[in-house]
Amino acid sequence: SQAQQLNPSILSEQQQQAIWEQVYQFWAVPSSNPMTPPPHSTGAALDITLVDATGETIDMGSEIDEVSPRSHPDYYANQQDLPYHYNRQLLKNLMYSAGFRCHPREWWHFCLGDQMWAWLRNQEDSTNTLMARYGGVECGAC
Q: Residue 106 catalytic?
């Protein structure tokens, strides 16, 4: 699918609100609270995909950072005739074997040691009492 080119100056308030509602399904509002740093600022989260032996990106059914339902890891689970679910499961299984966990709404986002990772691991096993290993990192030169 092609990205829509939208001009905010000609959108109605209702159209703008509908867009923000869709964006908030995939994007967390930044927080200045040091107890809830953005995942990537901890150094414990990364966005990753698969490549083939020649270094070409493997088609995962959506682009990294695509804001659409296709971004959900299991979006293609019921479409076995397409390779996307298999490719996503392969990536997920590889990352899980190294201890990472996948963002529930982003097939490309994996974490290990941040607050999302701890929450996901605790959801997997109610006897877990894991906490984030890493907090946010300030970048003075940024």
A: yes
